[in-house]
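User
Please review the sequence:
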Amino acid sequence: MIAPRWLAALLLCATLALPGTAGAQSVVNSTSPTLAELLKNIYGPNGLIVDSQALLPDGSTHSAHFNGAFQSEFERFNIALVRQLVALPLPSPAAGFTYKFDASTGTFARTTQSFGPILADRADTIGRGKFVFGYSLQQFDFHSFDGLPLSHVPAVFTHDDAQLGGGRADIITTDSAIAASVTQSTTFITFGVTDRLDVSLAVPLIRTSIDVLSHATIQRIGTGTSPATHFFEDPNAPGGFGNQRTFIAQGSAQGVGDLIVRGKGTVWESPAAGVAVGVDLRLPTGEEENLLGSGSLGVKLFEATSFTVGALSPHVGLAYQWNGATVLAGDIATGTKGNLPSEVQYNVGGDVSVDRRLTLAFDVLGRHSTGSPRLRSSPFTSQGAAPLVYPNIAFTLQTLNVLNGSVGMKVNVARTLLFTFNTLFRLNDAGLTTKLTPLVGLEYGF
């Protein structure tokens, strides 16, 4: 089903203010062969290397190479980002209109009063022989990583063999701004095989964009009187010993994401309640090297329980998402794969039938996993008789508990055509987070 043209106008474009700089600087634009390697290569394929006129004792040229967690470990940002792709809450492929065939009358009778949840699921199936086509559009503009704002990511780079002191005590401090966004438009189709069994196919189209601006400053802790040892040469003023440089990297990619095939069946039902179980099979059809997909097979087993209490329909759900191995969790340059963490997902919420054309929906959605990349502040103390403390970051592997809220509505605009409006918002600062995630969608059943 093709969405109306005006729907595209609802796509939200995000911009992130990058920190300004003072003084004359040189600017380096970095290019990367793939989006997944952009952060790793922002300072160049060989890392952060400054200019130097110093010579080693054997007369060879001094190569001042500096190392830092931002470049060596911040590619774990890719894992966090692709896990968002894997765990992005898709609108439920269960139809707003559900039916059951009445053999006594030879007709289909509607079985639910409300149009159901938006990002969660309910036990009801759509009915034998029924079809539903749906479309949704979501925009994710990532704001912070474990509570640390992406607009200011501090990092310290230390010299090779820094423990030897002297000129090697010099460090480079960086302040980086990262603008990362994902636009996801999903088309899905659901077919009622029987009154108790549905099958669905979801096809997401993904656009991922990352822009990075990093300001680097040489802190001459061990070479204060010898600027020629470590400096940034300004191409517009050769011969000077600059101490600042700006690095820029940007890229975007778009294409088909990971396809999802679903089967869902009702295992128990009564006039006022029901329980369904199902399985989602995620196929690695998206290009993982460009952060359009996970690069791994995924299987999610889920359960959905729903009730009817007058106009209110509460629901709860529990799922286990298993993820396979992918180069995004290993080393994309060598093709080495690592395991993408699996997780437990849960939701609790309800939907309210306000009248025959309007349903309001609300949910709390959670994710829990172990061994996940976590970012934390880790101040760096310099060497010397009067050490200074600089802001810095570090990565660890720890438990991750993500909690989001969701509120929205479904409006019946004509016959079995529904329009969906929803907002997803964070309830904690764990993982890669957005402030607000809008969703618009439509659904038609027959």
